[in-house]
Amino acid sequence: MKLKWALLAVFFTITTVLTGCEPLLVLDPKGPQAERQANDIMLSIGIMSFIVIAVLAILTYMLIKYRASKQSEDYEPPHIEGNPIVEAICVGIPVIIVIFLSIVSVKSNYIVEATPQGYEDQEPLVIYASSSNWKWHFSYPEEDIETVNYLYIPTDRPLEFKLYSYGPITSFWIPQLGGQKYAMADMVTTLHLAAEVPGEYMGRNANFSGEGFAENAFNVKAVPPAEFDEWVEEVKETASPLTEEKFNELLEPGHLGQSTYTGTHLEFSPAPEHNHGSSEQDEHSTDEHHESGHSEHDDEHSQH
C-alpha cells in the first residue's frame, strides 16, 4: 500500500513539474525541414517506447511465472533445448527495426538537404552566414545589406544559407527551422531552410568554440514578404555602410550586440571558393559572385 502511494506521489510530482516546462524547440517546428525532423524524432521515440514497454512487460511476466520456489535438495531442473522460433523473433525484430529506421533516416537526410518541399519553383533568398569569435555575420548579397547577431527572413520563401567561419569550426542552428550544420574556415557549406510561421526564433552556435561559446547566439525574426521588403528599404535608408576597417574591427574576439549595415563584407572579404553541398548551378553562381567581388576590389585598388 505504501509503495502504491509512493508511486502515485512520484507520478503527480513529475506531471506537475512538466506542465510548467516549455515545449522542446526541436519538437515545435515552424518550417518544413524542422517538421520532418520532429516527425522522425517522434517516430523513433514511439518505437523505442513500445520496445521498452514490451520488454518490461515480458520481464515482469517471466519473473512472476518462473520465480524461484522451495525445492528439495536433490531437485534437478529439466533440460530444455532452445526454441528456434523464439530465437528468430529475438534476432529478427531488432534487425527489422534497424533497417526501418535506417531507411527513414536516409530518406529524411536527402529531403532536409534539398530545397524544402513545396518551394522548388521559388527563387531562394541567399544569405551568407559567417561566424567569428563570438558573433554571427549575415550578408544579404541581393539586398546589399549585412546584419550582426540577428536575422530578418521572409516567410513562405526558401532560404539558402552559405555557411563559413572566420575562426574555429562553429555550427549554425535554428532549432525551430531545421537541423544544425557546420561552418568552417576553408569551405562553404549550404543549408536549406524555410519559415512558414511569422515569429521570433532562437539561433545559436551548437559547436563548442572557446570561452565565448555560451553567448554565441543570434535572434531570428520571420515576417511576411511585404514586411521584409519594408525592412530592407529602411536599412538602406538608415544604416551606415560597412567598410573593410569596420569589418576587421567586428572580427576581433568578443561579444557584440546587434548591428546593421549597408553593403556586405563579401565585396572585400569574399567567402571561400570551395563549396560543399551545393548544386553545380549554385557553385557557378557563387563563383561568378566571387569573381565580380574580386574584380571590383581590384578596380578600387588600381584607382587608388
Descriptive terms for the model:
304 residues; alpha/beta; Immunoglobulin-like; 2 domains; 6 helices; 13 strands; elongated
Form type: elongated
Number of helices: 6
Instruction: List how many beta strands DSSP finds.
Output: 13
| Count of distinct structural domains | 2
- How do the strands line up in the largest sheet? 11-12-3-2-1-5-8-13
The CATH superfamily of the largest domain is Cupredoxins -  blue copper proteins
Using only C-alpha atoms, the radius of gyration works out to: 27 Å
CATH topology of the largest domain: Immunoglobulin-like
Q: Proportion of β residues? A: 15-25%
Q: Unreliable stretches, pLDDT < 50, 5 or more residues?
A: 279-304
Secondary-structure-derived class: alpha/beta
How far is the N terminus from the C terminus?
89 Å
User: pLDDT average, as an integer?
Assistant: 86
Quick one: biggest sheet?
8 strands, mixed
Briefly, what CATH class of the largest domain? Mainly Beta
